[in-house]
Design goal:
Layout (H helix, E strand, L loop, with lengths): L6 E5 L4 H16 L7 E5 L4 H14 L5 H10 E5 L5 H11 L5 E5 L4
Parallel strand pairs: 1-2, 1-4, 2-3
């Protein structure tokens, strides 16, 4: 993560792209010391515990779980469930971002 971003927001965090590629990449970034910011996942349904379980399953299938990195990843996670066309979802996101002024947004959603 660049030094100018102080949070990572991933839209579509429960989808296939995140499952197959993003979660292993996040673990690798944490292992290398390249990611030290809150990670906020946004998707239509689910909760934080389900997201953590999905990440662990993904890592089991795509390279293995590094327990130390997974613990750091898990601790940095926040989750927002909501519809992308509902303004309340983005109001909730602004609230969860707290004082993060320069979040990086990643769109892992269909076109």
């Amino acid at each position: 993560m660049t030094r100018t971003s102080n949070a990572l927001v991933i839209f579509g965090i429960t989808g296939d792209l995140a499952y197959k590629q993003i979660f292993p990449a996040l673990q690798a970034m944490i292992n290398r010391g390249h990611l030290d910011a809150p990670i906020i996942g946004v998707a239509r349904s689910g909760n934080l515990d389900q997201l953590r379980a999905r990440i662990r399953q993904s890592l089991d299938e795509h390279g293995g779980v590094d327990e130390t990195a997974f613990a750091r990843l898990s601790a940095s996670l926040k989750y927002i469930s909501g519809d992308y066309q509902d303004a309340a979802t983005f109001e909730n996101l602004r609230s969860v971002l707290g004082d993060a002024a320069r979040p990086l947004h990643y769109l892992a959603v269909p076109p």
